[in-house]
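Hi R.,

Here's the chain you asked about this morning:
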Amino acid sequence: MTDIDQQFSQAQADVAQLPERPGNLTLLRLYALFKQASIGDVQGKKPGFTDIAGKYKYEAWAALEGTPADEAKTRYVELVASLKRGEAA
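And here is the predicted structure, written out as tokens:
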């Protein structure tokens, strides 16, 4: 396991222990970075207009298309670290 993989795993554990729930936009960023880091580019069909949450998740993930997995992991780790410090909402 590489260093970034270990940091990514730790960040996943840390995000569950945050003192307060991040805002919806931050949650979308976390979701998209996690998916890009673990699966790669967006897959499947875009949800329809009746699935608003699914549509936003899909769009957030699709915006990261082409981002290498290690870069997405690094950005995820940095975002979780800033949340732990109380810098991002």
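One quick note: The longest helix spans residues 69-84.

Cheers,
M.
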